[in-house]
Amino acid sequence: MILTVTMNPSVDIAYHLDSFVTDAVNRAGETHKTPGGKGLNVTRVLSQLGEHVVASGLLGGKTGEFLELELDKAKIKHSFYKVSGDTRNCIAVLHEGQQTEILEPGPEISEREAREFMNYFAKIVPDYKIVAISGSLPKGMPVDYYSQMIEHCVKNEVPVVLDCSGDALLEVLKGKSKPRAIKPNIDELSQILGIEVGEDFSSLKSALSKDIFEEIEWVIVSLGSNGGFAKHGDKYYKVNIPDISVVNPVGSGDSMVAGITAALHNRQTDENLLKMANSLGMLNAQEKQTGRVNLSNYLNDHMLQVNFFTRFYPKLNLR
After folding, report:
1. What residues act catalytically?
2. Percent of the chain with pLDDT over 70
3. How would DSSP label each residue in 40-100?
4. Which of 150 and 307 is assigned the larger pLDDT?
5. Which residue of 41, 86, 167, 305 is surrounded by the most CB atoms within 10 Å?
């Protein structure tokens, strides 16, 4: 059983427009409203893969009730802690191959709410085989909150896949209890290290060889259309992906996290883990709805057309 955690979920609203003009009336051709936040995108893809998954985190207000109803419709199990503030909305305007996002900050969490959720989390962790924690911390929560959560997981020998950024990630990297895997993008990696990291092999290998990542088993860097780069122990991998027609890239990183989590849960090889993660990321980008993949394409196309070969370092080529 897999547990996903979304501390700052949202109702994701996607507006599809032929064109977008500021300071004018814009009419959407299509609108999609889905349970959102990075962790819920991960949850949806895991559910599509047939994994037994339960979503947890914080919910509040009418938007929180909407999220629960939508998860029920999708037959996704959930167990959220209710907070006094309203769950946020996040808007993506998709136009002319571009996306413009407007993200609400979300509710402010009280010290009592933070403490009670941590107690609840500590009680349920032993029931799961792996935990995926994704997204930002809401206002009011201490910056080391994820570190505290991971400490409970490590005590119970439950591996963690973590996808967050900024100070919350730095606190985890500096802490004693480590996640099994992290998935920064190239900008987040540069932010962590305080240097500009290039997308060439030498620059990425040098970055992931830093002491700060030494105790993290998997560091997987998403590079957008350039694929990905990964470190597993003392091995380094480069993943190349084909050119695809992008419809909605929002949630592709979360789909990668779902692939990483499922592969670790099922004890897949390095090769299959990276194939799964990157293939799911591509498939999400080809769908209108966030955090959704077409599994027929996943099974019949991307996964089966991957060539694996070694040249200075293991390299995956999805072209």
Report:
1. 254
2. 88
3. HHHHHHHHHTT--EEEEEEE-HHHHHHHHHHHHHTT-EEEEEE-SSPPEEEEEEEETTEEE
4. 150
5. 41
